[in-house]
Design brief:
By secondary structure, the chain is of the alpha+beta class. 21% of the residues lie in helices and 42% in strands.
Length: 377
């Protein structure tokens, strides 16, 4: 497995990273890129990727911030090209107009094969219910296949997010990459948030919209706990996500993406099931950085050979960490080791199995990592 990386900036254009200097890039099977919204809107950028790595499948999305190696960047495009010796990849894309569940089923069915090891998903981050998307995939994919990925970002604006396969990124799209053959796949996901305040029963909800907690208007109750921060909603909600305890013992974190003052409701990035138990959460920068390291520590990877780490961290973590956001990426790369090449983005939702295992779930406010390596030929 060979990995090449490059970064585009307004000042320097494209600059090779892993290949060093002005060395010619290697041929590639797959290119994954993440780009700031304004950068991604220029079709010249994706054309340049196709020229740099001709014949490769090129998949990418807009972000709330770009990650390359140990750096967190803004206003750039970062790209990683991978060439396999014996493993292979297949890509697919679908429009969310079909409905999230149908899109998940269609993508999973398109990529299904006996030697499928991993599906990495990049989805529109504002028009898609990520929980319904992964539920659709669960219906059509073997339980032994790892599913990870993330929801595209738009800075911290929650406006228009875009995804692409072999062309300029567009809104309303979901792309998926299937990885096949002799591959080692590792994954980890962890938050670092701490619940506080009383537990509240979700007494009325519909999908991702929460109307009542303990029979009281949800938004009114939420504002009561936020105090002065309530005046900065919905943005301030990124610092106070909701812990959702399900009846089967699973716990998920949900982030608010919108509020309705008239209905006194809150819309989250994924489903908030009626009958679940909810509790507010908060964190500190140190706990979030430690949590990123714990996510990396969940991954078992071969001791030698090149490895690719795909990192998806939540925009809420970036805003909470502020100038220290680079430290969570540094901690991940420290744990994974020097023979790992890292790339990723800040998202509106992360897709990964729970830390205790099982099928993929939609998470918020986590650092989620997928590590890929190829067996020696």
């Amino acid at each position: 497995m060979q990995i090449d990386q490059a970064v585009w900036t307004t000042a320097d254009g494209w600059r090779p990273i892993a290949s060093g200097g002005d060395a010619a890039p290697a041929a590639a099977d797959l290119v994954v890129y993440f780009a700031a919204p304004g950068v991604a809107d220029d079709p010249q950028r994706t054309l340049e990727l196709a020229e740099r790595w001709p014949g490769a499948s090129i998949v990418g999305c807009t972000t709330g911030g770009e990650i390359l190696g140990t750096e967190v960047l803004d206003g750039t495009m970062v790209a990683t090209a991978v060439r396999f010796s014996t493993a292979r990849v297949k890509t697919a894309i679908s429009d969310i107009a079909k409905g999230a569940g149908a899109v998940g089923r269609d993508l999973a069915a398109t990529l299904a094969a006996p030697d499928l090891r991993l599906v990495f998903v990049l989805s529109d981050g504002t028009q898609v219910n990520g929980a319904a998307l992964v539920a659709g995939m669960r219906d059509a994919i073997d339980d032994g296949v790892v599913v990870t990925g993330g929801l595209a970002g738009d800075g911290a604006d929650f406006g228009v997010t875009k995804v692409a396969l072999n062309g300029p990124p567009q809104p309303g799209q979901v792309a998926a990459i299937g990885f096949y053959g002799p591959l080692s796949i590792g994954h980890g996901s962890y938050g670092g948030w701490t619940p506080f305040g009383p537990e509240r029963l979700v007494t009325r909800s519909r999908g991702a919209v929460l109307f009542e907690l303990d029979g009281q208007p949800a938004l009114e109750l939420y504002k009561r706990y936020l105090g002065e921060a309530a005046a900065r909603l919905p943005g301030s909600a990124l610092h106070f996500p909701l812990n959702i305890s399900l009846g089967d013992g699973r716990q998920l974190t949900r982030t608010i993406v919108g509020i309705d003052e008239q209905a006194q409701s809150m819309t989250f990035a994924g489903d908030v099931p009626q009958g679940a138990v909810a509790r507010l959460m908060r964190s500190s920068t140190d706990r979030l950085i430690e949590g990123a390291g714990r996510a990396a520590g969940q991954i078992t990877a071969p001791s030698s050979g090149p490895k690719l780490a795909l990192m998806v961290s939540c925009i809420g973590r970036k805003l909470t960490l502020g100038q220290r956001c680079g430290e969570e990426v540094e901690e991940v790369m420290r744990v994974l080791g020097a023979d790992t090449s890292g790339i990723g983005f800040y998202s509106y939702g992360e897709l990964s199995p729970h830390e205790t295992g099982g099928f993929c779930e939609l998470h918020n406010q986590t650092m989620t990592i997928t590590v890929i390596s190829e067996a020696a030929a």
